[in-house]
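task queued by scheduler; priority normal; single chain, no ligands, no partner chains; default sampling; output format set to structure tokens
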Amino acid sequence: MKFWCFHFEGFFSADSTEYPNEGVFSECLVKAETYNDAEFAFLTALSERKINLLKVENSFLVDTDPNELDYENPDNIYWIEWCEEVELSKKPSFEVFHLYPANEVEKRGIKKGS
């Protein structure tokens, strides 16, 4: 199975219990065989968290080939552990949410409460 990472910007819906109307930058890791399946899982995960997508900054396949990874490199350990988390939970995982104020979402011309 493959893992895909999406770096994105969005904002929480007005009815979100987490951060209503707040803008957010984050990353989401999903497990899928194809990019289309990964994108669908990512969009579904956003919907479940009530995050409206503004744009995908970057998306890429995470290379988890054990023959290629140096397990002592801290950067690789980060990816190995995050992939294991997604593998065990069987659902997409979000990295830390980097929030910005709701008024900044409005300045970008986005209707709050969407």
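post-processing summary
- Residues 74-89 form the longest helix (16 residues).
- The CA atoms of residues 5 and 60 lie 5 Å apart.
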